[in-house]
Amino acid sequence: MKISHASSIDDSQEILNFNNQAVSWYAQNARSLPWRAMMGETANPYHVWLSEIMLQQTTVTAVIPYFEKFINLWPRVDGLAAADEAAVMDAWAGLGYYSRARNLHKCAKVVCDEYGGEFPQEEKLLLKLPGIGPYTAAAIMAIAFGQRAAVMDGNIERIFARYRHVEGFLPDIKPILKDYTQLYMLDDSVFDPSSLAQALMDIGATICQPKRARCTECPLSQGCVSYLDADLKPLDYPRKKVKERPKRYGVCFIVENDSQGYLIERRPKKGLFANMYGLPMHMEDDEAEMLKRFSGCEIKQNQFVEHIFTHFHLKLYVVKLGVGAFYDLGLFDNINTEWVSCAEIRDVSLPSLFSKVVKII
Ligand code: SF4
Prior knowledge:
This protein is of the alpha/beta class and 361 residues long.
């Protein structure tokens, strides 16, 4: 039997059941996370905001040490606002998607300059802050301020795609998933928006996972169409179009001096890894062209690292050479450099791309 997501389920009773099951489960099974207030406690909006920005495209496990580092360095938003951008970028190094860190710093400044250090409690005002999009604004409204809000992250999208059996491909089906999120999370029966939002995040992270659906343990199984319909397989949803990223190529230089020092640079204030530490690097779109350009540098074809960015896939060849040969290339006259020893380089805050290269050193 096929059950359509447009079936004649009585929505008000169905939504009430959904809420009760999710929130009761959360009361017993909530994950303990350093930014999270337990049920009945008031969440700190600074912690909620900081964690939600860090969690964009990043796993909870990766975020926890960074969250703790930021809270130790800057316990309040005014401290973060007063910090140097370079210090914020250094603290963020390795977490990836670096525009988030720049926007985080800008946002802290706006919150302090325009709102006296308190996050505004209106979704439309939150949406005007740097780096805060619809998901983050809704998450802050629900979790920090206990307001009904349609929170839709990847976990919640997946739950609704399976729970209401939404055919079609992501991202085309996002508007349908958004409708379901609004239907279930803005309903009058939502008595604890913070717990409902966090319950769904936890169910998505621990039970209704991308490659595993533990339906027999799921609090939502009694209403889940993909589980109840024997002809459907929950793991088939949501369907995704495969995204092809363009490939780019680069050479990263390990420049060694006579005292076994290595050259690092503070990168320019604009562009890839802006204002962060890195190793000198040159990028090209064409691999053959790039290998030709550096043909005098003895590029070792087996020494490269691959790295996935949001908009492209990078294959980076690693070249080791002396100071004279490096400057003879004529590409790096104006870079902002420092020499560090092999031991010191491990302590430099580097983006993970360069950490992979340092392992080769
Ligand atoms: S019953 Fe299965 S498919 Fe449905 S929401 Fe729960 S884990 Fe996901």
